[in-house]
Each structure stands twice: as structure tokens, then as C-alpha cells.
Amino acid sequence: MSKKAFVEELVKRLCEEYNVPHNFEIWTNIIACKYMDTMDMNGFYSDKRKRMGINVNRLDTSKEIRATVMHEFRHVWQYTHYENQAKYWSH
């Protein structure tokens, strides 16, 4: 399984498990990864743009990918279930 497919499957399962609509894009493309490289980031989530970025070029193992996806998914979950608190802490 490719890293991109692994990310997408993991996000799909997390959305189902934690009752989160999958109404956001998952960015794992070259342009997104180059952007994250310049920012020294493994991933990001933007609620405003409804995007989760996972830098698959920088993450070598399934453990690293899983940890990053879980971290970013936490933000998705926070904005879905606790939007006011998430906005407070992210600004």
C-alpha cells in the first residue's frame, strides 16, 4: 500500500470511529509536501480551508505516518465537536 493510500484509509477509519464527517481534503501531493518541507512540518490542519496535509515525503515508517495523522486528526475532531474551544486555543 502506498503512503498516500495508507493516510487516506487511516483518515477514513478515524472519521467513522469518532463520528467526524469527512468533509475535508487530504493533501499528500508533491506541492503540499514541498510547502511543508519549507515550513519544517510533518503535517497541518486548516479548518478554514478544510484541509489536512500529511508530508509523506518526510515520514518514513507507518508508525511516523500514523502518529502524524492522529495528531492532525485530533484538530479535525476538536473543530467538529468543540469548535468554540478549538478556535480559542488555535488563535
Shape: globular
H/E series: HEHEEHH
For the residues shown, what is the average pLDDT? 91
Uncertain segments: none
Tell me the fraction of residues in β-strands, as a range: 5-15%
How many beta strands in the DSSP annotation?
Answer: 3
Question: From the alpha-carbon coordinates, what is the Rg to the nearest angstrom?
Answer: 13 Å
How are the strands ordered across the major sheet?
A: 1-3-2
Alpha carbon gap, first and last residue = 37 Å
> How many helices in DSSP terms?
4
What percent of residues adopt helix (DSSP H or I)? 55-70%
* Major beta-sheet overview: 3 strands, mixed
Structural class: alpha+beta
Q: Can you describe what's shown?
A:
The structure is a single chain. With 91 residues, this protein is of the alpha+beta class. It has helices at residues 3-17, 30-38, 62-81, 83-90; strands spanning 25-27, 43-46, 51-54. The chain has a three-stranded mixed β-sheet, with helices on both faces. Strand 2 and strand 3 form a beta hairpin. The longest helix is centred in the last third of the chain and has 20 residues, at 62-81. It is globular and about 35 Å long. The model has no long low-confidence stretch (mean pLDDT 91).
Per-chain topology:
Elements: H1 3-17, E1 25-27, H2 30-38, E2 43-46, E3 51-54, H3 62-81, H4 83-90
Parallel strand pairs: 1-3
Antiparallel strand pairs: 2-3
